[in-house]
Amino acid sequence: MNARLIYAASEHSANLFYATRFFAPDPFLYLQEADGGATHLCTTSLEVDRARRTARVDHVHDWADIRAQSKIIFPQRVLDETGLIVFFLKQLGIHTVDVPSSFPLGLARKLDELGIKAEPVPDPFWPQRTIKTDEEIALIEAALRITARGMNAGIQLIRQATIDSDSMLRLNGAPLTSEQVRGEINAQLVREGAMPGHTIVAGGTQGADPHEEGHGPLPAHAPIILDVFPRVMATGYWGDMTRTVCRGRAPERVRRAWEAVRQGQELAFSLIRNGVSGKSVHDAITQQFTAAGFVTGILPNGRQGGFFHGTGHGLGLEIHESPGIGNKDQTLATGHVVTVEPGLYYPDMGGVRIEDVVVVEPEGCRNLTVQEKFLELVD
Known about the structure:
The chain is an alpha+beta fold.
């Protein structure tokens, strides 16, 4: 196996953070020598002491020291950043490196011009990242507990709202909006050290688009999708959770859709285990929805209806990572952590989605999410 090289900012590169457990906002170099050999981290004087304390690598180097070494050998040359990388690699006898598919193209071309061949490796760059350790599962569970508290802050605000004569929600005499609920959720997450993403609070027909964040006044007697997915800043691990609630009595169609989604999720829980095909799980849910009268396909108005996204995705240092549970067939294995989030969407009804996170085990799966499931919030 070739040496492996990553050049990125670890705050934005899950592969780099996984390899070093060192957060930094600016790019730095990581190298693993061939055949799983010694690991190296090269950074600036600004970060080198912190890296030496906290990074999980064998050797931490200061670029200033590497530049000084290069001046001894090439006293007349002034090496730029790429030149220093090349000098460092050649000092170790390295001329070919495997790099992630996201490796900067410009840097790869410069390396090639200077005699270092960068070979892109398809994702996952670290295949072992898909199998979570006990430590990682505990960190994801902690992220999910924070996520639940954010979710509950939003649900509580909806629960406190009153219903006016136009079947809209009001709080303290003013319309309750998606923005207000999202702000309450996000504030709770930030207080606990988690950075919210594009938190979804989509009410009524807005929820028919699964990734619509939601905007404006919220309706009563209609589904409201809340999808909360923060990253815990201290650990880098993500939580992900969705609930659908209705302030007041839900229409019969929404109640049936919610129950179908709940049962679809339970079906997935019963099927997920080591060695199972993710596509088979997804297909089983789709078939169950169809049998319950919720058909998936293009509607007469040209929009999509039914269950038209995947059942789930891997969760860890990225919000979406391998493996997926959907139309692309991937085999689930013990230690995979995946979301289970079936949903139903129709433009004239809105959307219903319920999402938990499970870890795959030899004979089944274990739900890592601790959060109630209910539809109606009634007085």
